[in-house]
Every structure is written in C-alpha cells, then in structure tokens.
Amino acid sequence: ELYLASRSMLLGKEVVVTAGGTVERFDPVRYLTNDSSGKMGFAIAEAARDLGAQVTLIAARTTAPTPGGVELVQVESAQQMLDAVLSRADSADVVVKAAAVADYRPIIRHETKLKKTGDTLIIEMEKTTDILAELGRRKNGQFLVGFAAETDRLEEHAMDKLQRKNCDLIVANDVTMEGAGFNVDTNAVSIFDRDGLVEALPVLGKRETADRLMRLVADRLAGSAK
Ligand code: CTP
Ligand code: CA
C-alpha cells in the first residue's frame, strides 16, 4: 500500500523541471557555458514522474540520459529556456529550477568565425533574465523550487535568494563539499523555506536526493490544498 500511495503523491499534478547548463554563443563555433551535468534536474524529473506527475523537462546542454515518460524540451540559451518555461508556467503546479542558467551572455553574436587578430580578446557581456525571479514575480499558484550553488555562507545566500525570487523552497548545496555539486552522482543539499532550514540531507545519490525533495514538495502541496 505504501508503494501505491507514493506512486500517486503527485497524481494529476503538472511539474516543470529545468536542467543542464545553458549555452551562450558568440560566433558560429564558440560559446560560453558552465559545469552543470544536468543530472540533478533529470533525477528530479524521474522522481516526479514516479510520484505520478505529468512532467515536462526543459533541458539545456547535458550529459544525462533522457528519462522515459517525460516530455523533453531541448533548449540552448538562457533566453530560449526563459521562453520555454514561461510558455508552460501558467498551467504548472510545480516548477523546479535545477538548471545552471548563465548569468551573462555575449552582447554580440558574430555571423562569421572570429579571427585571431589582437593579442587580447574582450567579449562584452550583458545580464540574462533571471528566469526564477521572473516566475516569482508572475506567480499565480505555482509552487516554486529554486536551487542555490554556493561556496560560502550557504544559509545566508540561500535565504536571500528564496526571498528575492519569491520561491517556496530553495535547495542549497555547498559545491566545495566532497560528493556534492557539479558532475558527480551524489549530492548533499539543505532545503530551506521562508522560515529557514527544513531539512539538511546527507550525501545521497542524486536520485535519492530528488525523491526526498519531491516527496517534500508533494507534502507541501497536499498541506496547502487542505
Ligand atoms: N536562475 C535563473 N535564471 C538566471 C539565473 C539563475 O532561473 N538567469 C535560477 C537558477 O536556476 C537557480 C537559482 O536561480 O534555481 C539560483 O541560481 P544561482 O546561480 O545560485 O543564483 P544567482 O541569483 O544567479 O546568483 P549568483 O550566481 O550571483 O550566486
Ligand atoms: Ca548564477
């Protein structure tokens, strides 16, 4: 019975998950990106699927295999991810922003390959739209889960992001910790809500971490429905 009950914790819910690292191009063959593997977001999509949700996974560059039974939307840049997320956010019950979105993008995207001329190269960048903050501003009933990758003052930075971006939960990890963060199969996250620390999870496989997170989300949804 326990199995059946957990299989339906998110039944009928629409969950949008973003994952991977965005790619910001500045000429036809060159781009800027980051170290995200996309594994955490993909694990979250699987966990939500297994709890009965209808899942859309909006993914930028990733090395993770595509999970079955979820709708995959492949994007490249922060702008494309923004468009994809906003077009689906209205009908979503939950949005989980696990993607590593570029904070800046090159202002100019050259039509032809840049030639090696000067001794230095300056690529001027401009800020991207903060997708999570935009979702927070437009929030109309969605349960918003953000991520925070930090190297110091974890709780302070996480709580600041939660408040600034109007999230319901923030999943924070200390990327300097062994077995946490980018390009590994494990993670050790602390989950915060408006009132502070909810749960500090130990080092776990990303799928186990994802299961715990999505069960917490399901509990919160059930609680607010009462
Ligand atoms: N995020 C986003 N759009 C951006 C930048 C970040 O949606 N343009 C989201 C991430 O997906 C994550 C959360 O915001 O869920 C926090 O990302 P993070 O990089 O930790 O925070 P920033 O606000 O970008 O601050 P900083 O990089 O300076 O720590
Ligand atoms: Ca950032």
UniProtKB/TrEMBL annotation:
<comment type="function">
    <text>Catalyzes two steps in the biosynthesis of coenzyme A. In the first step cysteine is conjugated to 4'-phosphopantothenate to form 4-phosphopantothenoylcysteine, in the latter compound is decarboxylated to form 4'-phosphopantotheine.</text>
</comment>
<feature type="binding site">
    <location>
        <position position="161"/>
    </location>
    <ligand>
        <name>CTP</name>
    </ligand>
</feature>
<feature type="binding site">
    <location>
        <position position="147"/>
    </location>
    <ligand>
        <name>CTP</name>
    </ligand>
</feature>
<keyword id="KW-0456">Lyase</keyword>
<comment type="similarity">
    <text>In the C-terminal section; belongs to the PPC synthetase family.</text>
</comment>
<feature type="binding site">
    <location>
        <position position="103"/>
    </location>
    <ligand>
        <name>CTP</name>
    </ligand>
</feature>
<comment type="similarity">
    <text>In the N-terminal section; belongs to the HFCD (homo-oligomeric flavin containing Cys decarboxylase) superfamily.</text>
</comment>
<keyword id="KW-0436">Ligase</keyword>
<feature type="region of interest" description="Phosphopantothenate--cysteine ligase">
    <location>
        <begin position="15"/>
        <end position="226"/>
    </location>
</feature>
<dbReference type="GO" id="GO:0046872">
    <property type="term" value="F:metal ion binding"/>
</dbReference>
<dbReference type="GO" id="GO:0010181">
    <property type="term" value="F:FMN binding"/>
</dbReference>
<keyword id="KW-0285">Flavoprotein</keyword>
<comment type="pathway">
    <text>Cofactor biosynthesis; coenzyme A biosynthesis; CoA from (R)-pantothenate: step 2/5.</text>
</comment>
<keyword id="KW-0210">Decarboxylase</keyword>
<keyword id="KW-0479">Metal-binding</keyword>
<dbReference type="GO" id="GO:0015941">
    <property type="term" value="P:pantothenate catabolic process"/>
</dbReference>
<keyword id="KW-0288">FMN</keyword>
<protein>
    <recommendedName>
        <fullName>Coenzyme A biosynthesis bifunctional protein CoaBC</fullName>
        <ecNumber>4.1.1.36</ecNumber>
        <ecNumber>6.3.2.5</ecNumber>
    </recommendedName>
</protein>
<keyword id="KW-0511">Multifunctional enzyme</keyword>
<feature type="binding site">
    <location>
        <position position="165"/>
    </location>
    <ligand>
        <name>CTP</name>
    </ligand>
</feature>
<dbReference type="GO" id="GO:0015937">
    <property type="term" value="P:coenzyme A biosynthetic process"/>
</dbReference>
<comment type="function">
    <text>Catalyzes two sequential steps in the biosynthesis of coenzyme A. In the first step cysteine is conjugated to 4'-phosphopantothenate to form 4-phosphopantothenoylcysteine. In the second step the latter compound is decarboxylated to form 4'-phosphopantotheine.</text>
</comment>
<feature type="domain" description="DNA/pantothenate metabolism flavoprotein C-terminal">
    <location>
        <begin position="11"/>
        <end position="219"/>
    </location>
</feature>
<dbReference type="GO" id="GO:0004633">
    <property type="term" value="F:phosphopantothenoylcysteine decarboxylase activity"/>
</dbReference>
<comment type="pathway">
    <text>Cofactor biosynthesis; coenzyme A biosynthesis; CoA from (R)-pantothenate: step 3/5.</text>
</comment>
<dbReference type="GO" id="GO:0071513">
    <property type="term" value="C:phosphopantothenoylcysteine decarboxylase complex"/>
</dbReference>
<dbReference type="GO" id="GO:0004632">
    <property type="term" value="F:phosphopantothenate--cysteine ligase activity"/>
</dbReference>
<keyword id="KW-0460">Magnesium</keyword>
<feature type="binding site">
    <location>
        <position position="113"/>
    </location>
    <ligand>
        <name>CTP</name>
    </ligand>
</feature>
